Amino acid sequence: MQLNSSFKGYPAHYPAIEMADIKQYQWNVLRGDLSLPLAILKNSSLDHNLQWMKNFCLDRGIDIAPHGKTTMSPELYAKQISAGAWGISFANVFQASVGVRCGIQNIIIANQVFQSIDLDSLSQFLVANSKLKIFFLVDSLKQIKTIEQWKLKKKSTTIFNVLLEVGIDGHRTGCRTHAQGLELAQAIHQSPALVLSGIECYEGGLVTCNHAHDQAGVAQLMARVNQLALACEHNQWFENEEVLITAGGSAVFDLVAQYLKPSLKTKTRCILRSGCYLTHDHHHYEKSMKCIAHRLQLQETLRPAIELIAGVQSCPELGLALLTMGKRDVSFDLDLPQPIWRLNFGDKQTSAVPDHWVITQLNDQHAYLKYNALSPEDEHPEMGQVVGFGISHACTTFDKWRWMPIVEDDYQVVEAVSLNF
Known about the structure:
Elements: E1 2-3, E2 17-18, E3 38-42, H1 43-60, E4 63-64, H2 74-82, E5 88-90, H3 93-101, E6 106-112, H4 116-128, E7 133-138, H5 141-154, E8 160-166, H6 178-190, E9 194-201, H7 211-234, E10 242-247, H8 253-259, E11 267-272, H9 284-296, E12 306-317, E13 320-323, E14 338-343, E15 351-352, E16 358-362, E17 367-370, E18 386-390, H10 395-398, E19 403-407, E20 413-418
Parallel strand pairs: 3-19, 4-11, 5-6, 6-7, 7-8, 8-9, 9-10, 10-11
Antiparallel strand pairs: 1-2, 3-12, 12-13, 12-18, 13-17, 14-15, 14-18, 16-17, 19-20
């Protein structure tokens, strides 16, 4: 893949280069070799997080199929697969198609598939690659009937592997009662278009970071999953040699992991789908990770690997600076970005920002940095200064970029990744 001046963050006067060759150019972000604003990934943190999650799963005898919607990056998928991921999860058929094109063999679409055109696509993928396995979610009789009608109309020989979704009242998709789950499982078993391959749920809507509340909520949800799995096994509604039990966002995956292995006689693969572990963040998931660390009594946890770097473009009045970063560049759905380092003029290394620096507002292309006007002048931002920011919720920063450089701790560029939103 080529990088060129149509990619935000890539200087407009640079010639196009092959992304795989980026290291040979010896670019350094702190030296000003790339345009700002710029989203970057820290190589050391990525490596740490990959190994940390690999060990977490190995210690518990479970697998991971991280949610690929977080990054939509084939290069990062490859790192996750190399670190032991069983497969990659996606939210829709378009996203799954990116995984198919980059060679992912095990794909979970953690959502309902029902549109004829999407069923056409999945069927074509499966016909073209006999080794490819795709699983998607079912939570209604209407969805089953829709897929059966598609099969009849298209005269298709494709039989889809599906996971029965267990849901939570007032939250996202999924059947709400055990009785409904049994009815759907039997209907899937009897369907000429579907094979019941396992049970799925998503616990993210329960998260409060209150240990007692989260523990009870996850335990109750996973008990429903396990009860339904046992009933399906008893009725011989699972037809594959291996049953998939899958759950897990990025906030309470430790609690999910406690209950992810039901006592089935059938061979079972238990799969987390946490996606944000790879890059983590400085606020939202960091808060959740502190709760996980407390529960598991951990000293070493995940490290933030994603940063947004911007320049101070104007200091129009005391107490206020405007930076070259806005809603088009960084996540703001959960929390605003927080300044974590600055590069003072003449320095080659970053230093921590004063505690009183805070982003209070974002426009499309501007960030408002407020600071204490009564503080010493060397604590005031200056026009032209470079500032690094931690973010909250990596998903909605990744989707604002088409590429990101991977840098060492001194911000020397060593790799790059493509993003396919």
